[in-house]
Amino acid sequence: MSADAADTTEEIRGTAQGTAPVPLSVLDLVTVGAGRTATDALRTSVDIARLAERRGFHRYWVAEHHSMPGVASSSPAVILAHLAAHTDRIRLGSGGVMLPNHAPLVIAEQFGTLEAMAPGRVDLGLGRAPGTDGATAAALRRTDRLNEGADDFPQQLAELIRFLDDDFPDGHPYGRIHAVPGPVQATSPGGVQSAHRPPVWLLGSSGFSARLAGTLGLPFAFAHHFSAQNTVPALDLYRDSFRPSAVLDAPYALIGVSALATDDEKEARRQVQAAALNMVRLRTGRPGLVPTPEEAEAHDFSPMEEEFVRSWNANVIHGTADEVRTGLDDLRKRTGADELMLTANAHGGDVRLRSYELIADAYGLPAA
User: In angstroms, rounded to a whole number, what is the distance separating the alpha carbons of residues 88 and 208?
Assistant: First the structure.
């Protein structure tokens, strides 16, 4: 393995801290609660990113969503640039960029720019879902042929990687096009630009991206937090499909996990119920701001809504710090995940911030 490949592998794999069984990371949806603004949510993201860096979390990813009032993460690259300006060491990345929504060259340029801002600590996680409803996806892509984008994902991915590596073959229509910032600057006369580029991850909630990531020898991130029934089959498929590459000589899989720790178990249940009500509204075509726990307590759940909430909350690890730690340890044993990426869904930014602090304390993560 070359030195560059060894460096990339180290960036991907990370190191467990404290008594955590695997590296712990953060997934941020930049959630906006009722009575709060997007500015409030983005300030909370900075606070959480700083806490995560201070306490030894390995990476901090931002997810692309659109047309959802309670989720202010429509522009991951912009948010990551903001976070890069307020942190020094933690890895920053997309969890993920929904590639069919964008031209591959644009993503290569955006993440080349981020790499120039925060050298050696940027991840590019890619998904093939729209991250929104069909009408919004059509507006993003300027077409109503949405299946076409998903079906073309492998070709879009290959094109993006070519732009990132600046290695289109001779005679290719894009052979004279370069993503800048990027490797072309290192090969230009007098060039001193780093040729390093962000590691590419594939994200998924089913088997498609699991198999593709394995075949290409790329790291894989699975959305356990909203597709728990598919977690183990997808990870098995990824591992069975894996072929060593210049990036990885063995599989590496992280899973996204909904986890919320509070000082009091009852408060955890209140917060999780409010987040579940938000999901009820989203799934029934009524997306809005994340409701307060008081609003959730006053809500008259229909039998169908109650069943959805029970099913949804069954996959949210919540309670005191010790209860959350036990739940995370059990989940890691069941899935064999190489990394746990935690997302704390709650109305208030202070609750989310406290959750990550409590989990860090539970695992004895560094205090500085």
Answer: 35
